[in-house]
Amino acid sequence: MESVAPTRIIEWIPYNNFQNIKYLTKGGVSKIYTAEWTDGPYDKWDSRNQQLKRFGKLKVILKTLENVEGANVSWFDEAKSHLITSNKSLGVVKCFGLTINPNRKYMLVLQKMDVDLRSYLRHNHNKLTWKMRINIICDIIKAFYEIHKWNTIHRDLHSGNILYLQSANLWCISDFGFSGPADKPLTNVYGNLPYIAPEILFRKDYSFASDIY
User: Fold this and answer.
1) Is residue 94 part of a domain?
2) Interatomic CA distance for residues 114 and 163, integer angstroms
């Protein structure tokens, strides 16, 4: 799978490479955990030794993919397209790869972000200047420009899966393409009702326009 940088390489990661795994929350159709990845992701190219170097210990998110064993081929095709998009677009939360836990549940290994937009606005509403608000909007627009440029649809955008990385001062899109159970058709409706475009409720196809709604 091609990547724009070493930090965007997607790999299979043995589960025993994770330590201090702790349950964090349940979201939609998945369970989310925090963990420490002992050697971390690829970080840079060592030209002298002609090899990729790893970052070292890093806190990450482990997200279970429910009912993958019953998924149909179209879901896996869709999952592949989203993983490819996530490693090419800087506006999408990094997906480092996949792992499988002792219960035989597949898990996404994701970059740990600092806060979601919903919580951020709740706690900082009175502190935000118009310039700061516009910068947030610009980050979201840039992310969706990249996502749609790769002909991919998110399907479940809301303020809970727009996440902030303070070290980079960047807002990114998460929960990318895994908003519904793997064993259910992609035509089923999932998501938070206030954010679902009206045409989707009438069983129309998801589209770029329904993402923007």
Assistant:
1) yes
2) 7
58 in any annotated domain? yes
Specify if 22 maps to a domain.
Answer: yes
Contacts 24+ apart (CB under 8 A), 15-22: 15/99, 15/100, 15/101, 15/102, 17/99, 18/60, 18/62, 18/99, 21/62
Model confidence pLDDT, tens digit, residues 170-181? 999 987 655 444
Which pLDDT tens digit goes with each residue over 100-122? Answer: 899 888 888 989 999 999 999 99
1 lies in some domain: no
Q: What CA–CA distance (Å, rounded) separates 87 from 168?
A: 17
Element (H, E) at 198: helix 198-201
How many domains does the structure of the chain reveal? 1
Residue with tokens 């499988």, as numbered in its chain: 100
Comparing CA positions, the residue from 165, 155, 85 lying closest to residue 117 is 165
The pTM is what? Answer: 0.82
CATH code at 176?
1.10.510.10
Please give the structure tokens belonging to residue 127.
């502190």
Q: Which two tokens stand for residue 129?
A: 């200047």
| Owner of token pair 């792992």 | 99
Q: Which domain holds residue 59?
A: 6-212
